[in-house]
Amino acid sequence: MKKTQKLTFISLLVAQGLVLHVFERMLPVPFIAPGAKLGLTNIITVLALYMFNFKDVFLIIILRIILATLLGGTLSGFLYSIAGGILSFIAMYLMKRLGEKDISVIGVSIAGAIFHNIGQVIIAALVVENAMMFTYLPILLVAGIGTGFFVGLTSKYLLPFLKRIQMK
């Protein structure tokens, strides 16, 4: 893929991530856990993980989080997103890399959702200076398994289509 095509494709993924972020913020999701979300933007992260190298995916995540914050986020929202996003990405990257033959896209996505929640709870505990925030983690992990499954399933079916587009 030529450098210009790659940059354009990365830009489109960042833009799609922003659209999913804005759309998800508008959804009144009655989750079992306050603050839990569907994680639709993680579809973009999972897709990018299977299409680009570490550096490019990291760039996509950072740009998406910074731009989402500028589009109406808060400093605390940025901290939760950046911690969850980076921890999630590292976990997914390692799972994909170390278990390439044994772990599916869905498994990688579930791991990402779990570690995203762990990153956010760590930040919450630091912000409020109370380790009791970790008692909230089991509820978030259950929600993360469900959302991670659906994000992974969606990504699994989108990947072949996007790889064909990427090759043109």
What features would you describe in this structure?
- The N and C termini lie close together (8 Å).
- This protein has a single domain, classed as Arp2/3 complex 21 kDa subunit ARPC3.
- By secondary structure, the protein is mostly helical.
- The protein contains six helices and no strands.
- Helices cover 76% and strands 0% of the residues.
Features:
168 residues; mainly alpha; Arp2/3 complex 21 kDa subunit ARPC3; 76% helix
Number of domains: 1
Number of strands: 0
Q: What is the oligomer described by this structure? A: single chain
Question: Mind telling me the C-alpha Rg?
Answer: 16 Å
Short description:
The chain has 168 residues and is an all-alpha fold.
Describe the secondary-structure layout.
Blueprint: H1 3-26, H2 42-49, H3 54-70, H4 75-98, H5 105-128, H6 137-167
Helix pairs in contact: 1-2, 1-3, 2-6, 3-4, 4-5, 5-6
